[in-house]
């Protein structure tokens, strides 16, 4: 069974090195990981990890909570990192109104720059959205979304799910779908078409049940897959293969596990 973790932060873990996390993931059957930058330093680290481990790819960007750091100079370096062969995505970017670290106007400006970069490089856009769904989807519609969009740690309601599905966005579910109090999120996950489903950990955050309280790592992604298989009433092995194929499409990675490069 081939599992995938489409969103982890290998450089953020305080207890395990990237090498230890990759080893644990491989032992758990995880065959593909995308490690994601949230600022300039972690984006550089994401590319370094991707260059070191053959089953790891990178996403580079500035998190909306840090959008004040998305200066022209920083964005120029992010664009250089996006040119690295192992970089398959721009992000995580988006909008986060749950925290007020950065104003909505600054977040939107950064989001637009990331969207433009993803389109220029023909890279996947990895979107973080929290308590800002209307504005987030409006910005994507107004700017014109890239060909491939991944809604990271998806938490939208039924209406948002329908809007994302209509737009063809991939919906990536994290460990919180396993939480005992996440009945509504599981119901929404069951409404998402299997052909748009992705799995992630967002590690070292959002550790799935029954390991809550401990740091998360990519080896726990099978628990998220199992929760999705249950709500879709499908065999876990069958759904794992669907999610693996979805991941290849979502990040333009060829069947051999190699990035296919920009489309012509």
Q: How would you summarize this macromolecular structure in one to three sentences?
A:
With 264 residues, the protein is an alpha/beta fold.
Describe the structure.
This protein is of the alpha/beta class and 264 residues long. It has one domain: Alpha-Beta Barrel (TIM Barrel). 41% of the residues lie in helices and 17% in strands. The chain is built from nine helices and eight strands. The chain has helices spanning 18-27, 40-52, 72-82, 104-121, 133-143, 158-167, 183-191, 221-231, 236-250, and strands spanning 3-8, 30-36, 56-60, 87-96, 124-130, 149-151, 170-173, 197-199. The chain has an eight-stranded parallel β-sheet with strand order 1-2-3-4-5-6-7-8. α2 runs parallel beside α3. The longest helix is centred in the middle third of the chain and has 18 residues, at 104-121.
């Amino acid at each position: 069974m081939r599992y995938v973790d489409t969103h982890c932060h290998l450089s953020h873990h305080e207890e395990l090195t990237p090498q230890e996390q990759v080893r644990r993931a491989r032992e758990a059957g995880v065959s593909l990981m995308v490690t994601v930058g949230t600022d300039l330093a972690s984006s550089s680290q994401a590319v370094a990890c991707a260059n070191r481990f053959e089953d790891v790819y990178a996403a580079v960007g500035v998190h909306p909570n840090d959008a004040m750091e998305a200066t022209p100079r920083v964005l120029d370096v992010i664009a250089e990192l996006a040119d690295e062969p192992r970089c398959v995505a721009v992000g995580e970017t988006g909008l986060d109104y749950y925290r007020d670290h950065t104003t909505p106007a600054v977040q939107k400006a950064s989001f637009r720059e990331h969207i433009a970069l993803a389109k220029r490089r023909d890279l996947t856009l990895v979107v973080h959205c929290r308590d800002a769904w209307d504005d987030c989807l409006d910005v994507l519609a107004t700017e014109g979304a890239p060909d491939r969009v991944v809604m990271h740690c998806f938490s939208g309601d039924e209406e948002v799910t329908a809007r994302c599905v209509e737009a063809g966005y991939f919906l990536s579910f994290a460990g919180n779908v396993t939480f005992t109090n996440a009945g509504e999120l599981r119901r929404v996950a069951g409404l998402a078409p299997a052909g748009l489903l992705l799995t992630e950990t967002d590690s070292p955050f959002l550790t799935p049940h029954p390991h809550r309280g401990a740091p998360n790592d990519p080896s726990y992604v099978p628990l998220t897959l199992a929760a999705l298989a249950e709500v879709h009433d499908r065999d876990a092995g069958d759904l794992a293969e669907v999610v693996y194929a979805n991941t290849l499409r979502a990040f333009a990675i060829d069947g051999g596990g190699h990035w296919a490069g920009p489309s012509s």
